TrEMBL record:
PROSITE patterns: C1Q (PS50871)
Organism (species): Periophthalmus magnuspinnatus
One Pfam family recorded for the sequence: Collagen
Record lineage: Eukaryota, Metazoa, Chordata, Craniata, Vertebrata
Predominant localisation class: secreted
Name of the featured protein: C1q domain-containing protein
Alphabetical UniProt keywords: Collagen, Extracellular matrix, Secreted, Signal
Length: 236
């Protein structure tokens, strides 16, 4: 009641709901929430799709800095032989060398039917000249004269007939070697030889060294008795 008046109110049924109102203005952002707990690892996803086509090669990049020298590699095998190169140019003519002197001295002589069975204890004069270009053997004396200092080889071959043989190779009067052979009713052969060192002017010859009973050095158209010698090398 109000001001002494009494009002009575009868309540009716609820009305039909009205239409929704217009949307209000957006509210302000709320405060940031607390960090949630880490969740469990999810299942592995399916593999991706096929790889795409390779793109074109890009332009070369800038040259980088020079790296350090690497460890030496293993020695490789020998390669194939290369082709022969072209002939080089002819070189200049060299200086003239010293003259090389070639000394020559040689002889080879023999007996004849007129000089066979020579006298004893004297140089045998071989009068059959086989070789004596330098004339170092003297037919008149039967002696060889050395013209250049050096080593010489002397040899003799004797046909022995009718008498025994004993000869000596002589150098300046000294007997160097002897050869002896006894005659036995038919032709026989004897020989000897030696290397001698001679000075210029030395003389060498062959002579019978046992008297007239040992001079059976024989020669005719079919048999020979020879004496030879030559320079092996000259001393410097």
């Amino acid at each position: 009641s109000t001001g002494g008046h009494t009002f009575s109110c009868i309540c009716g049924y609820p009305g039909i709901p009205g239409d929704p109102g217009h949307n209000g203005m957006p509210g302000r952002d709320g405060r940031e929430g607390l960090t949630g707990e880490k969740g469990d690892k999810g299942p592995t996803g399916a593999p991706g799709g096929d790889r795409g086509i390779q793109g074109p090669l890009g332009p070369p990049g800038r040259l980088g800095p020079k790296g350090e020298i690497g460890v030496p590699g293993h020695k490789g095998s020998i390669g194939y032989r290369g082709e022969r190169g072209s002939r080089g140019d002819k070189g200049e003519k060299g200086e003239k060398g010293e003259a090389f002197a070639i000394f020559k001295s040689a002889f080879s002589v023999g007996l004849t039917a007129q000089t066979k069975l020579p006298a004893a204890n004297a140089p045998i004069r071989f009068d059959k000249i086989i070789y004596n270009v330098q004339n170092h053997y003297d037919v008149q004396t039967g002696r060889f004269t050395c013209s250049v200092r050096g080593a010489y080889y002397f040899t003799y071959h004797i046909t022995v007939f009718s008498r025994n043989v004993k000869v000596a190779l002589v150098k300046n009067g000294a007997k160097i070697i002897h050869t002896m052979d006894n005659y036995q009713s038919s032709e026989d052969q004897a020989a000897g030889g030696a290397v001698l060192h001679l000075e210029a002017g030395d003389k060498v010859w062959l002579q019978v060294a046992g008297g007239e009973l040992f001079n059976g050095l024989f020669a005719d158209e079919d048999d020979d008795t020879t004496f030879s010698g030559f320079l092996i090398f000259a001393d410097e």
